[in-house]
Write a structure and sequence with these properties.
By secondary structure, this protein is mostly helical. The chain has helices at residues 2-5, 26-34, 39-45, 51-64; strands at residues 6-7, 18-19. The protein contains four helices and two strands. A two-stranded antiparallel sheet has the order 1-2. This is DUF433 domain-containing protein. InterPro entries: DUF433, Homeodomain-like_sf, WH-like_DNA-bd_sf. It comes from Acidithiobacillus ferrooxidans (strain ATCC 23270 / DSM 14882 / CIP 104768 / NCIMB 8455).
Length: 75
């Protein structure tokens, strides 16, 4: 599902992962959900998004969270 829903294009949103080549970065969708918006509210506000897009965003985030180790950055 991710390969059809999540796209990365350097000419769209500076290469950030987005929904289907649209200008909806995954991080925005995750922030909307984290702020308390429901999937239904997001879909009502952004009519070109689909429920599967929101679920793909959550799946993408879950996969990123599966990293084995996080090292601190040294400044």
């Amino acid at each position: 599902m991710l390969d059809k829903r999540i796209t990365i294009d350097p000419s769209i949103c500076h290469g950030k992962p987005c929904i289907r080549g649209l200008r909806y970065p995954i991080e925005d969708i995750l922030e909307w959900l984290a702020s308390g918006m429901s999937i239904e509210e997001i879909l009502a506000d952004y009519e070109d998004l689909e429920r599967a897009d929101i679920l793909a965003s959550l799946d993408y985030a879950a996969r990123l969270a599966q990293i084995k180790r996080v090292d601190r950055l040294v400044s």
